[in-house]
Each structure stands twice: as C-alpha cells, then as structure tokens.
Give the backbone structure.
Amino acid sequence: MHSANNNSGVVGTSLPTTQLTRAGGEPSGYRAGRSIAVAEKEIKRTASLHDLPEELIIKIIRLLELRDIVRLQQVSTHMHGVINNNHALAKAWYQRFSLPHQYQLKTSLPAEDKKQLRLGLRPFTEDEALVASLIKYRKKAYFPALFYFAKTGLMSQCKIFNLEKKTTITHRDCVRSADFSADGRHVVTASDDKKAKIYGQNDKGTWVEKAIISHDLDVSSATFSADSRHVVTVSLDDTSKIYGQGVDGSWVHKLTISHNDYINSAFFSPDGRHAVTASGDHTAKIISQKDDGSWEEKLTLSHNDWVNSASFSSDSRHVMTSSYDNTVKILCQQDDGSWQEKAIISHDDAIDSATFSADGIYVVTISNDNKAKIHHLEENGSWLEKVTISHNKCLHSATFSVDGHHLVTASFDKTAKIYGEKADGSWEQEATISHAHWFVSASFCADGQHVVTFGGDNKVKIHSQQVNGLWKENVTFTHDDDVNSAIFSPDGHHLVTADSDGMVIIYGLKEGSWEKKRTFYHNDSVHSATFGPDGRHVVTASDDCTARIIGQQTDGSWVVKAIISHKCPIISATFSADGDHVLTISSDNEVRINKLRMNK
C-alpha cells in the first residue's frame, strides 16, 4: 500500500487530501480480483481494471476527479505506478483550474530557463534531486501542471514562511494601484504624486527601480500588457503613456496618447498588440503596435457623451465601448488591420458597463434603465440580441461564468438572477437569489457550478447547480458586520470572506456541500482576502496595519504562516502570478514586495 502523498512520480511532495480510508483502515476503491459475497456464495471477478492495457487505464484515469485518482492510487502497487508514471495527480489537479487561469500559470513559468526554474523551487526545498527531477520535464506540454503541483505541495509542507523583504517602493502621495506583471518579474505602481514607477527583478532575485513615468497630474492607474513587455498609464492630465521594455531590459517611452478630457481607462489587448482608451471627451482611441515596435493611433471612435469603458475580446479582434449616450459600440478588426463598426447596442439610459464573455462570443451590457442585455456574435459577424434581463432598480454587476454558458446579475433591488444558455442558443432565467439588503457582489466559481452572493445584510449565500440543471441554495453564512469580499479559490474548492469586524473565514467544498473550515481574526476591518494562484494560500489586507498569509497544510487544515506589518493600514495585498511574492500597499504611501521562503 502506498501513501497518497507520494504524488505524480515526484518524490517528496504532498498536497492537502481528505481522509480516504474507511473505518477499520480499509482503503476505498476496487481491488484486483476482489471477492463479493452473494447468497452465501462467493463470486470472484475474472476481469478487473488491472487486466486492461495500460493505455486504456490512462484514458480512464483522465476522466476521473482528483480525489478519485487519489483513492485509486491506494488500491495497489500497480495502480500507484501507473498513476505516478503518467503524472495523473498533477494533471487532474491542474485541470481544476479554468483555462484562463491555466494560461496565466503557464505564462508566468520560465520553462526554457533552468536557472529561473530552480530559483522558483529552492525557497521551499533543499532537495536538489527533486528540483532536477522536475526540470527534466520542462519541454513537456504538461510541465506547468507538474511544476506547480510539486511547488504547491512543497509550500503546503511549510508550517510557517520566512518573509524576505525585497524592496520598499515609496511615493509622496496616495498610491492608487500596484500590480505584478503576468510573469511576476515586474511591478508597476501609480500614485497621486504624478508618477508611476516600474520595478524589476534581476537574475539574482533582487528588485531594483527600472523606470519612473512622470505626468503633470495624478496617475490614477498603470497596467501591464499580458506579455509583461509594456505598461500603459492613465493620468488626470488627460494623457496616457505607453512604455516598453527593450532587449537590454530598460524601459523607454513609446507613445503619449492625448484626450481633451479625463481618461477613464486604458487597457491592452490580450495579445499585447493593441491598446484602447476611453475618455470623457466622448471618444475612445485604438492604438496599435507596428512591426518595428513603435506605437501609433489607428482609430478615434466617437460617442455623443462620456465614454466610461472600452475593452477587448479574448481574441483581440473586437473592441467594445460603452457610453453615457445610452449606447455600446462593437468594432471588429479586418484582415487589412482596419477596424470596422459591427454593432450598436442601445439602452434607455446611460450604460454602466459592457463585458465580453471569456470566449468572446457573448457580450453583456448593463444600464441605468435597470436592464442587462446579452448579445451573441453570429457567423456573419453581426451581433444578435438574445435576452433582456430586467430588475426593479439599477444593476450593480453582470458576470459570465468562465465557460460563458451562464450569467449572474446583482441589483440594488436586493436580488440576483441566474440566466443559462439552452441547447437551442436561447437564454432563460434559472434562479432568483434574494437578500434582505442591496447586493454588493455575485460571482461564479471556476467550473460555473456555484454562485456566491453577498450584500448589505451581512450574509454570504452560495447557490449550487444540481444534476437536473436547477439551482438550489447550498448554504448561508452570517457575519457580524459588513462583508467586504467573498472570493472563490481558482480551483473552485474553497471560498474566503472578509468583513469589517476583522474576521476572515475560509470555507471548503466537501461532497457537494460547503462548510466552514476556519475563522481568523484581525484587530480591525479587513479590506480584502484573496487566494494565491495555487488556491491553497490566502493573503489578507487589514486596517490593523497587517497582512496575513494563510496556508493549507498537508492535513487539510488552514493556519497563519506569516504576518506582514506596516506602520499604517494596509489597503490591498496580492500574490504574484507564480505565488512566490506578496505585494502590499499601505496608506502611508508605501508599497512593499516580500518573498516567501520556508522556515529552515
């Protein structure tokens, strides 16, 4: 009999697992040649899973859930070997994540750089044989699954983390944002002191200032492109600036985008080849990168009122703008590189937001007319209205599930509505969720099977989709004060909530039901609690001037593994995409980067 903690053929790693043995110590699962007593006669199976060709066994294993593979691994030495040799546990664990999250993990992994791979593991292990055994698979398609599965297991074994403060970024006024790049090797900040700062990590792991981007007025945001090679800023001086990283690692100014009024947003396309701005001057501008690396304005799109948002579809071929002139416009890039208007979506009042589904074939718009509308991309390139969702008051949000087949709205009328796509392509209401007070948020978990809502009534509700497609209230949790956040883990198996009373509660999914796992306490209001990329670690941000890193142990329990302290309240705290670093922003205008290490 083999332990379930010897995972995926990588020695020395372990992940949190549930108790998998029955009373008396007999493992669940099927044994080869297992006897079954029937009417005082014994019938012995002449065929079993062991009798099948290994290739067919592997195909069957790929259809199983992680917990089922763990159970199967306990059946016999043969099954243990098949599962280990095929890295089945690592692959099943990785498949729990949504495709966008898998892409994010893959993007942050320097698979071709053995030195960087070693640096990513050594903070959590001194086993060089283990590191070498992982790196040898770096050219395999499943390497991200293997690498992060092993790394998460190593981090789960750490009872506490040592914090290595890498650098402190200081500004002279309020810090509006601070974010890691997708590869985790850069950080950009935006401040009311009229500056954005880019910091980068060198080959030795040291963080140094790379560039200062100056504006004439406050910088409200600074955002990386998906490939981590460019930054775009937004300032109250009505300009956005694009900076790019050169071959030598330096960051240089590429283009200044000017508007005649306040810029509401500026974002890159997912492929990093375009950017779009939205402004109070009634225009949005599309900017594109040329073959020589320079950037140029390609199109100015006009509305009759303030443009409050502009965004790209996941394939970067569509741009959608929303305006207070009651319209949304969708443009499509043609084969010659030009942008052509494909649709105008109208409401009876100002548009609050417009969002693409993850696959880019649906859009949802919400308006002050108390309605949300879903439109679908047809084969001829047009956009067809599928359904109008009505509420009695303004909508707070409308969010697609990751697979794009469901939508949940949240309204100030104290209800959330779940709509689902049917086999014929139509959309129908499937559930209404009610709270005693207005809604703050409604969102799906990674697999779209659960929805979490919370509002001003201090309650958190989880609704789950049943086998018959109906939605049923799974559980209601009550806090003692306002709930500030409720977020699912990336794999959808945990939920963390944070409230103004200083409580952080972690819940877990077990056999289809949600249950409280542990409560943690701060001494003041908690602004947020967010999961790391592995779904096994949480970082909090509190007015008690601390951020706490909470992690799941190999026995499934959750414990505080480290505390980051500032002199003033912490506004936000986030993990890097690789989970190695934590970025905190405090109200004393400081941003800190801390690296996690095992406690030797």
